[in-house]
Amino acid sequence: xxxxxxxxxxxxxxxxxxxxxxxxxxxxxxxxxxxxxxxxxxxxxxxxxxxxxxxxxxxxxxxxxxxxxxxxxxxxxxxxxxxxxxxxxx
Amino acid sequence: xxxxxxxxxxxxxxxxxxxxxxxxxxxxxxxxxxxxxxxxxxxxxxxxxxxxxxxxxxxxxxxxxxxxxxxxxxxxxxxxxxxxxxxxxxxxxxxxxxxxxxxxxxxxxxxxxxxxxxxxxxxxxxxxxxxxxxxxxxxxxxxxxxxxxxxxxxxxxxxxxxxxxxxxxxxxxxxxxxxxxxxxxxxxxxxxxxxxxxxxxxxxxxxxxxxxxxxxxxxxxxxxxxxxxxxxxxxxxxxxxxxxxxxxxxxxxxxxxxxxxx
Lengths: 90, 262
What we know:
The complex is a heterodimer of chains A (about 90) and B (about 260).
Chain A: H1 2-12, H2 15-32, H3 36-51, E1 62-68, E2 71-79, E3 87-89
Antiparallel strand pairs in A: 1-2, 2-3
Chain B: E1 4-9, H1 17-30, E2 35-39, H2 47-51, H3 61-65, H4 71-74, E3 76-77, E4 84-87, H5 100-111, E5 116-120, H6 127-133, E6 138-143, H7 147-162, E7 168-175, H8 177-181, H9 188-195, E8 198-204, H10 207-215, H11 226-238, H12 253-261
Parallel strand pairs in B: 1-5, 1-6, 2-4, 2-5, 6-7, 7-8
Antiparallel strand pairs in B: 3-4
Helix pairs in contact in B: 1-11, 5-6
């Protein structure tokens, strides 16, 4: 099992894939005209606002761009604290 | 006659804009179309050497802008294809010597005399790029399978989209099938997925392009060159013909040995 996992991981991180992933990130920031640092700041502010009303797992919050053809959207994935059981998407 | 005005652009420099312009000019001329290539890279004239016409230039685009001579008089006719001609860039001026409106006027006048007007855009996204794409009915965006070239291509698409400009089609130049096979190079599908625009051609990396550039004979004239064949196919697609893409698979070991023996 371990061996195949090792093999798979190596294949998944081919140079082509790394280039594609880096481009995905760079293009989404270029298109939205927001730097990675600003996005991080935005994430912190979102966490602060949501935390006022809900108990969330703030270290697991993901704020990313998602693109569909040439349309880009900002997607925040904010898991609620364990006892509520479900993740909430905004 | 009102020909189609097509601008070849890229954002990043050195990806093969002038090579593409020269080869598509010849490809269309071979199909019996009349073609005028305009070198819009004022100050960095290059299309003339690609076409092997550098010794025959008398007037340039700035002479036409300042009405020192007519467009017809400034055109340099190709040695082999009388239906292909070049409007050379000026070498001593810079890009501020021409305005967007003047470029539109010249391109439209050229379109009255030819089936296709191909404008070779300067690199970058400043004034030179802007006047080159202004008259375009179609923009052919040349990119390479590299992170920086694809990023710049995306910027250009964004700029053209924001201004509601001409439709954009992509040419992926200098794709190395062997590196793609080894998953080392970005493949065409990944690039198309990222940029989300239509593809009009893939041109494989080919040493014949360098040799052709040295001799001033576009690679398309080399019958054996796969890059030449790709450019010929793009020319046919521009005229509306449906041409299937050449499968760009790296030769297998056996094929390589066989080729070596020949």
